[in-house]
């Protein structure tokens, strides 16, 4: 199953870094967040990627053009016609298709533009700026079980601030550090989609989260996979610093590669 990653937005809310590079190339632990996302998919056996480019897309193309070289031990022998000798490498078994989907194309339009690369088969879709420890095997299994056109991973994000428990007489009874928000489940990305979903997308101006998803929901074709584990988008510098700190401390929940993942059939 191919994995489509939306990586073409301007990233204006994290402009401190996105003015230099596309948002998916902003680094966590000296690796682009895009790399972290792909490593997570690869851990579950999904290694065929289609990346939708837009803003500064050449930056992503150059990264993958040199990826094998950067991940290898090499010798440059200038005495012998500049011979390049590759000794060993640790590059992942990825197939990466990079598609220019337009500078100002909306999310739905970007998905529509890569239809020919997906073909007439189910595919996965996510955003290039958020990490999670979502169990992708379970996600696909649930999608197949539901038998609908689309499944979206949903989460209940924590509130931004801690909350106090206060009595009617204004006595503080407790403090909860960053509790869940208002109880609503939100779109966390990590979709599984049938090819019929392309029929819900009109053109470059289509926002995937609007008419397509709303149309699928109206027709009873959109299901939710509730994820109660870790999920964190990188919308701001504060988010970036949080992810960086978790990585440095060795407490990055999204670093599933190299770990044993327990299947939770309760979801």
From TrEMBL:
Protein name according to UniProt: Glucose-1-phosphate cytidylyltransferase
Protein EC: 2.7.7.33
Database matches in PANTHER family: GLUCOSE-1-PHOSPHATE CYTIDYLYLTRANSFERASE (PTHR47183:SF1), GLUCOSE-1-PHOSPHATE CYTIDYLYLTRANSFERASE-RELATED (PTHR47183)
Keywords for the protein's UniProt record, in alphabetical order: Nucleotidyltransferase, Transferase
MF annotations from Gene Ontology: glucose-1-phosphate cytidylyltransferase activity
Origin organism lineage: Bacteria, Bacillati, Bacillota, Bacilli, Bacillales
Pfam families from the UniProt entry: NTP_transferase
Domain of life: Bacteria
Nucleotidyl transferase domain boundaries: 2-231
Organism: Paenibacillus faecis
SUPFAM superfamilies: Nucleotide-diphospho-sugar transferases (SSF53448)
Tagged with keyword Nucleotidyltransferase: yes
One BP term from GO: O antigen biosynthetic process
Keyword Nucleotidyltransferase set for record: yes
Segments crossing the lipid bilayer: none
